[in-house]
Amino acid sequence: MKNIDILCIGETLIDFIGNETDATLQQTTGYKRLLGGSPTNVAFNAAKLGLRAAIVSTVGNDGLGHFALRELEQGGVNTQYSRTANSANTSIVMVSRSTGTPDFIAYRDADVHIEDYQLADTVLQNAHVYHTTCFALSKKPAQHTIVTKAKRAKELGLQLSIDLNYSDRIWPERQEAMDIIQLYCSYNPLIKISEDDCFRIFNEEKSEAFIFDYFHSHGADTVCLTKGKDGVVLSDRNTGIIKQDAQRLDNIHDTTGAGDAFWTGFLYARLKGYNFTDTLTLAQKIAGLKLQNIKNWETIL
Questions:
Q1: Does residue 254 carry a pLDDT above 60?
Q2: Which letter, b or e, does each residue of 244-269 get, where b requires 16 or more Cβ atoms within 10 Å of its Cβ?
């Protein structure tokens, strides 16, 4: 009997979010400390929706690392496969508060030290979904661990998933990034990618047709392209193209974490057997709640 719905692998870090909305990092005068990291957000969100979520990550043996693990545990996330490193500090990211795409600076240390033993077969065999991100894949040894164990997860029958949140500021070795992304795609993950991510990956604007053909040709059956105010488009090799308009929302509080909320809703819906149209509807509703800073998500399930 599997006891993990979503196994999230990658960075657990601390986000310092600016207090002033739509101010640059240079203009921001104060910050709020929050639990962060895209895989961490997905795990936390999944537990909030009632799923059995676990996080595989590394934090420092310091005040910020202790804070992060405590927040996760209090949120119902299984942290037994995460570790505390004595030789590295907890990673942090400074983020501007924005109603558009936020600016950020990452100071990375402990998050890159994910080791093979944290993802033993006994862990993988207990999970349904294996989820990670480009951020997590951008540095070794975490990169080697995550890719190697993704192959093993595929062999064991898990559904793989990835948020292709590529940034050349995080991963300047573009050709290496493309090679690793293609390798991960060969394991047929569910793919989430935004228009901004696409521009950063390909270093130029690409059509929807190009984007979908590219990832399908490298092995991914299902690709979900998020387009902000222009909604979302999904391409599945069996189902075809599905488009949905964006929700009309009042009082957008902050865009930080909305993509992670969207993908949590997407994975929840797939685990529950929703069709793709209903999956996108639920994912957009969850993202909308995050955008509006509404805390109670369970009422829409």
A1: no
A2: beeeeeeeeebbbbbbbbbbbbbbbb
**Mean pLDDT on 155-169:** 96
CB 9 within 8 A of CB 141: no
Q: In Å, how far are 8, 134, 198, 213 from 204, measured between CA atoms? A: 30, 18, 8, 16
Query: Cα(294)–Cα(95) distance, rounded to whole angstroms?
Result: 20
Beta-carbon count within 10 A of 299 CB? 7
Distance CA 290, CA 285 (A): 9
HSE-up (13 A, CA, CB side) for residue 48:
22
**What does the alpha-carbon distance between residue 199 and residue 248 come to, in Å, rounded to a whole number?**
25
- The per-residue pLDDT for range 233-250, each reduced to its tens digit, is 999 999 999 999 987 766
Helical residues (DSSP H) of the chain, grouped into ranges: 38-48, 63-74, 121-124, 134-137, 142-155, 174-185, 195-202, 208-217, 258-271, 276-291
- Determine the average pLDDT of the residues in 151-171: 97
Counted residue by residue, the chain has a size of 301
Distance CA 178, CA 180 (A): 6
Q: What three-state secondary structure class fits 206?
A: coil
Residue 241 CB neighbour total at 10 angstroms: 11
Buried residues in 108-117 as b, exposed as e (16+ CB within 10 A)? bbbbbbbeee
- DSSP letter at 91? P
Rounded Cα distance, 43 and 12, in Å = 10
Predicted confidence band of residue 30 (pLDDT cuts 50, 70, 90):
confident
**What's the rounded Cα separation, in Å, for the pair 215 and 182?**
8
